[in-house]
Design goal:
Layout (H helix, E strand, L loop, with lengths): L9 H5 L3 H14 L6 H14 L3 E5 L2 H14 L8 E5 L4 H9 L3 E5 L10 H7 L4 E7 L9 H10 L2 E5 L20 E5 L13 E5 L2 H10 L4 E3 L2 E2 L10 H10 L3 H18 L5 E2 L14 E5 L5 H10 L28 H9 E4 L7 H12 L7
Parallel strand pairs: 2-3, 2-4, 4-5, 5-6
Antiparallel strand pairs: 1-7, 6-7, 8-9, 10-11, 11-12
The protein binds pyridoxal-5'-phosphate.
The site of pyridoxal-5'-phosphate (PLP) has 15 residues, from helix 4 and helix 5.
């Protein structure tokens, strides 16, 4: 039987952590404390330590982390409905959903084709007199914030929010961890992320005490103390069972990043096929390779390439085939937006296996299979 190189198998990813996870979950079960409590506090402490940010709030998931940040800024009067927020057009739709959910206006910026991320030029071009914030997304695990972008944001007086769902553990070119690059950051611990829970989970980090308080209150019915509601809030709290899973896994973050970096190096060294464009490696800082995303030079070949890999036993995925501005829910919303790079990426990208189900030897073999792809003879 032919060998399969699966794209991702979460059971296998979590198997090595099971003794620690089971011990953590057992602590919660025995504690009688099933909402909030010490496991959630411990995770928040670990996130403060990992980022150096003074405040961290565990929440229900990554989308809620983003929604709560924007709604908290509105609650504090620092953003107003109708204000413009620059968002990269090449992102998972949750980034945009959080902005529109808060009644803010997303202004989509086409990415730099080399990094597939927001750039200083993209930021500059999307700026208008109504811009009040930027949501940068460290897509695929690559930090999308540098000194030039910082200067633009500072000059324009923008609030800087990070969507750090895909880049936990990465460092900016200036050596600062993602999640500590702006005013506030959203984390997702969705099971497929570099550090994944066994269900939904997320967090907010911030350097702003008032924002941290507002996020915490909004996530807890808008209540700042018992039976006292200062906002029309939600229930977006972090489940302590998931917090216990995460406190077991988070100490292994550096290993996880190194493992992904090793696989990325193998792919970058071994893949040599003129039909493909390999991802760019940042000159400074670190990339944590949430996804290893290659592109077909000729987008018309993508379906054949994926079918060929599948026949050869290699699982793949596409992040993302339909960009947010072309989703049915936003019909009519982004009419006239010219986002040629985003649309080209959506049509040409392919993600290769890079989870802990893949070994460096597998990556070498996958590269060999990829190098034998010849569109002229297939
Ligand atoms: C996963 C993800 C989210 C949403 O996180 P959830 O925990 O799934 O709600 C937001 N933004 C990006 C870029 C993501 O990859």
């Amino acid at each position: 039987m032919k060998k399969r190189y699966e794209f991702l198998d979460l059971g296998k990813v979590n198997a090595p952590f099971m003794p620690e996870i089971e011990a953590g979950v057992a602590r919660v079960l025995a504690s009688g404390r099933y909402v909030g409590g010490p496991e959630v506090e411990r995770l928040e402490e670990m996130l403060r330590e990992a980022t150096g940010m003074p405040f961290a709030v565990g929440v229900s998931n990554g989308l809620d982390a983003l929604r709560l940040i924007f709604r908290a800024y509105i609650g504090l009067g620092r953003l107003r409905p109708g204000d413009e927020v620059i968002v990269p057009a090449n992102t998972y739709i949750a980034s945009v959903l959080a902005v529109t959910d808060a009644g803010l206006v997303p202004v989509l910026a086409d990415p730099d084709p080399a990094t597939m991320n927001l750039s200083a030029d993209g930021l500059r071009m999307a700026l208008t007199p109504r811009t009040r914030a930027v949501l940068t997304v460290h897509l695929y695990g690559r930090p999308a914030w540098d000194a030039e972008m910082e200067e633009i944001a500072l000059k324009a007086g923008l609030i800087v929010v990070e969507d750090n769902a895909q880049a936990i553990g990465a460092l900016s070119p200036g050596g600062i961890p993602t999640g500590a690059l702006g005013d506030a950051a959203a984390f997702s611990f969705y099971p497929t992320k570099n550090i994944g829970a066994l269900g939904d989970a997320g967090a907010v980090t911030t350097r702003d005490e008032a924002l941290a308080r507002a996020v915490r209150a909004l996530a807890n019915y808008g209540s700042d103390r018992r039976y006292h509601n200062i906002y029309e809030g939600f229930n977006c709290r972090l489940d302590p069972v998931q917090a216990a899973v995460l406190t077991a896994k988070l100490p292994h973050l550096a290993e996880e990043s190194r493992r992904r970096q090793k696989l990325a190096r193998v792919y970058l060294e071994c893949i040599a096929n003129p039909a493909l464009i390999l991802p760019d490696v940042p000159a400074g800082g670190t990339h944590v390779w949430h996804q290893f995303v290659i592109r077909l030079r000729d987008r018309a070949l993508r379906d054949r390439f994926i079918a060929y890999l599948d026949t050869e036993g290699v699982g793949t995925d596409i992040h993302y085939a339909v960009p947010p501005h072309l989703q049915p829910c936003y019909r009519g919303r982004f009419d006239g937006a010219e986002l040629p790079v985003t649309e080209e990426l959506a049509a040409s990208v392919v993600s290769l296996p890079i989870s802990s189900c893949t070994t460096p030897a597998d990556a070498r073999e996958i590269a060999g299979i990829i190098n034998r792809f010849n569109p002229d003879t297939l």
